[in-house]
Amino acid sequence: MGDTGTGQDLLDVLVVGGGINGAGIARDAAGRGWSVSLCEQDDLASHTSSASTKLIHGGLRYLQYGEFGLVRKALRERSVLQRLAPHLVVPTRFVLPHAAHLRPGWMLHAGLWLYDHLGHTGSAFPRSRRLDLRSDPRGAVLQPGFRTGFTYSDARVDDARLVLLNALDAHERGARIHVRTRCEQLIRHRDHWWAVLRHADGSVQRLRARAVVNATGPWAGNLLERAGMDAPIGLRLVQGSHIVVPRLYGHDSAYLLQQPDQRIVFVLPFEQDFTLIGTTDVDYDGDPAQVRAASSEVAYLCAAASRWLRTPVQPADVVWQYSGVRPLLGDHHHDAAKVTRDYRLQLDASQAPLLSVLGGKLTTYRTLAEEAVDQLGAALGRAEPAWTADGAPLPGGDLGAAPVVLAKLQAQYPGLSETLLATLARRYGSRASAVLGDATSTVQLGTAFGADLYAREVDYLVAHEWVRTLDDLLWRRTKLGLRLDAAQREGLAQYLAQRVAAMA
Fold it and tell me: 402-503: which CATH architecture?
């Protein structure tokens, strides 16, 4: 342990927080030629950004609260993100069954018409249409008696990997990414900041930056206190929980299910063999790092799905549950579900700039990052243009959607199974070939840990994706925690510890 250096080089910006907003800002700034460091006290996407409903969407339900600007912005980003990460962002048809006692059909039709028109300037996403649930196979998933519904388009995404790809791209553009590194102190010194960073091994690093970005999500207020600032930030912390059960149906569409309390619950295909159900909205006042799904939330989600689906969902069916704390902009709504998902950028440029990111949602992270770097650029006298909307795709996204990548991998690796290659195509896109290297058979991929995970992929994750712990690998870089048993996990943990120690 000790001091790893005084960091005399002056960075353009230090980004504190390795969730989707921090990673997106680091990528944007690095792509403009700025010198950037990002520090995250845990793993990338280890909290809110890996605990979403895993959607890239406009937010159909926000229309009823009059948030037309947010929906339009999110729908525009839906198309942008599909282009940037086509292997990761999966267009999906959503089924919205109609129950007259909840909302009249004309209201659903009008909302979807508006959703289409807000989002379809040059969009490749199909428009909504009415659905006869008695004849459409997707109606068979629902309880008898539902006759009509609607179908519309949005997209699904692996949220944690979306964060990872932004951090990886930032790194490849010159940014320094420090995981498991806590920003313990920020000291303003007229035209720059001194930051004190503590790494996982206890060593301390001091660096200087012309500007700081506070992208710490639920911890935004804590970081301001460490910087000696007490400006009110007006965040409302809301807990959202999800459950995962064995796959409830065979097709690849999702469901948006209305509830008697005026909330909606999504039912989504998940990881090929499972179904994801969420989310709840409950005000939260504890430590965001300790949030857990309450039994009452699990019961609510089971009842919400069972109210509509032919196959009832019971708490005993749940194979995984997760919960995150969303830092939303505080407003007057008593109901947490009605609190806006928009964001605000709070810039203090009285001396060296400090920009706090407040609120936001996964879908709009890229435009948030662009606005943040624009504001910092104006404060720092930098004029490099925005680039991410039309720039290069995220790592792995250059070949297109996963089926296109799979076809190329099958031609390149005829000795490997289609199941393995399809998994890697979805996970890594074109970079799956970097994982596989020159292997011609699974024997050359090394130790098999189960569920098509081999030593060569583990080595890749440690060397290139900042994996350091079992949870990093099982729940964020992959979702193999759903598939590996206790003995397999133990074998993987031992191997991973050896690989991480070898890198130290």
Answer: Orthogonal Bundle (1.10)
